[in-house]
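TODO from last week: model SET domain-containing protein.
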Amino acid sequence: MMAKRQRISAPPWWDEIVGEVTGNGGYLHRGITFLPESRSIVCEAEIDEKTLVFKIPRSSILSAPSGCDQYAWIQELRDKTNDRCKAQNAIADLILAYRLAGEDPTYLKTLPPPSSWNLLPRRWTEETLQKCLGGSPLMERIKKQKSSVTADYRLLCNHPKGKGGPTFEAFDDMLAAVTSRAFAGAKDEIMMIPILDLCNHARGKDEKKNLEYKILDDGSVEVSATAKIAPHEHFRLTYGAKGNSQLLLNYGFAMKHNLETDGSSNDFLEFSFDGAPAVELRTGPKDYTYGKFIKILEQILGESSASLEEEEEDDDMNAFLDGTDEMEEMDIYGAASADEVPEDTEQNEEIENELEALKKLKQVIHERIDAYGCKGSKLRDRLECQDGSIDYFSSLLVLSEQRCLFFYFLCAEKVGILLQNKDLSTLDKADGFKDVPINDEDLSLIDKQTSELANVFMTIRHGNGF
C-alpha cells in the first residue's frame, strides 16, 4: 500500500489570513498551502490550467492612495512648488509604509522577519557595498535610494500630523516591504495583496509563470492557473521583464539566467563615455543591440546621435534589423550611396576614425571590468554559493554586468577585424576576458549574436564592402 503523503505544516498565521480572505467573500483552492522553508505558497493537489486558484476580496487588500483618507496629509508632499515639501519616494509608497508601520492588520503576520529586508542594497553597510558591488553603475542609484528614505522620513515627521509617528526603523522596514511586494493598481494606486505576494517571480527561457491575475471592477483580485500545476510545485508570477539591477535594488534578489527565449537579456548596464548621457546597454539579437552599439561609438567619436535616431525610426531599418526584409545600402553617418562612391582617401580616413573609436571603446570596457571589486576567481567562488545570500545575489548582478561589457567588447573586436578586411575565424573570442566566468553555452550564444551585430554594422555602414 502506498504511504499517505504527509501534509505540509503551515504556520498558524496562514490559517488566520485564509480565514480572513474567505470570510470576506474570497476563495482559496484546496490545493494551496504555505511552505515555511521557502516562504512561498505551493501546490498540494494538482490544479488544471485555467482553474481559479484564489480570489482576494477588496476588503482584504491594503491600498494607497485610495481608501487612505486618514493619511490624506501625506498627499501634500506631492506639491512640487515647494522644494522643501517634495518627497523623493512615490507618495503611494510613503502612505502604505507609514500606515503599515503604525497599524497592526493581519496582513503584517504574512510578512517575513525584518532581517529579510537586509537583502535590499540600500540597507547594506558601505563596506558590504564596496565588497559586493564596487565598480557597478548600480552603486550610484543605491546611494540615492539610501538618502531618499532618511529624507522622506524626516519630511513626514516634520509635518504637524506626523508628530509621534512610527520609529525610523519601523518605517524603513515597511517601506522595504512596500517597494518589494506591492502591485500596481489603477492610476497611482498600489496594493498589498495577501497570499498573491507570496508567489515567486519567474521570467525568461528557463522558468515560466504558472499563474496570472486580474483586477476586477469591484477591486477584488482573481488569480488563475496558466498551465497545469503539479503537487509540490511552487506558484509563480512574473514581475515583468526586469533586469537584475532592478530586481536587486527593489526586491533584494537576482536571477541566474535572465534571458528570454529569443536570446535577449532582461539585464541592462548603464554605460557612458566622458560625461555623455548614459546608454542602457543590453545583450541579445541585433535589433536589441545595434542602436546601443552605435550610440556608444558616437559618444567616443563625439558625433551627434540625431541622424541615428532618424534612421532607427525608418521602416526599412527596423525590418532589416528584425531580419524580416532586405534593405538598400545606407550609411548612418551620411556617406555617399552606392551610386556616389566617396574618394578612397575619405573612406580610409573614416575607417581609421572608426578603428580608433573601437580601440578606445575596448580600452574603456577593460577599465570598467578592472574597476569591479568582485571578479575572476572571487566572482566564481561567490557564484558557487547559490544560497540566497547577499554575496550570491550581488554576484549574479555583477556577472550580468560583466557579461554585457564582454558582449560589446567582443563586438568591437569583430567590427575592427572586418574593417581591416580580415576573417572573424582568426579571433579568440575569450582572449583577454578570462576573468569573466561565462560558460561555454553562453559564450556560444554571445559569439553568434556579436557576429550578427558586427555584420549588420558593416552592411549598414559600409554596404558589405569588405
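Done. The chain is about 40% helix and 10% strand.
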